Amino acid sequence: MGERLISDPPPQTPSTARLTGAFALAHFPFSLLSLFLTLYLFPAINAEFATTWADDTLVPALVLMALYFPLGLLFGAGIPWARVHTPQELVRAISSQAMIAWGWAAAMFSTLFLGLWPGVILTFFLAFPSSLFALSFCFLFPDASLPLLLVSLMTLAIPAGLLPPLLFNLGSFCATRCRVELEISR
What we know:
By secondary structure, the chain is mainly alpha-helical. It has helices spanning about 15-40, 40-50, 55-65, 70-80, 85-115, 115-125, 130-140, 145-185. The chain is elongated, with a radius of gyration of 19 Å.
């Protein structure tokens, strides 16, 4: 069995609050970094392929959403918490974070309907990958009516709020599981 050094902190059971805090700690800087990447990196790539505006937002949105898994791997490798033992713990962690994201989406829609543009901009930037994901599908159908676009935005808020915590936590739990199995095999 692996020897634990005195300086190593003991593994902590990952409570829902601790997992939510870890996600928030990784999510907000990632949102701002992804905004920078989308504004500066993706236009240069897309200019090479002469894509449409819809492709300019859809491809970065899908890439940014997929990056939550490696972000969770990196974050989970650095946190000394014990492996999640039951599927219920995983579901509870992901669902609580998704509920917060859906509340954030409701705040964004509320500020949008009320015309409070600073609130729209703030919520858009602090949840940039999810916001871009939801809006990119609206750009695919530019001739759709306003009610259809609003219904599609509200419908897309479901996966936009669920995918980041799901991918982040799966990555984090995979890293924790690998670390635990490595310690056991030593």
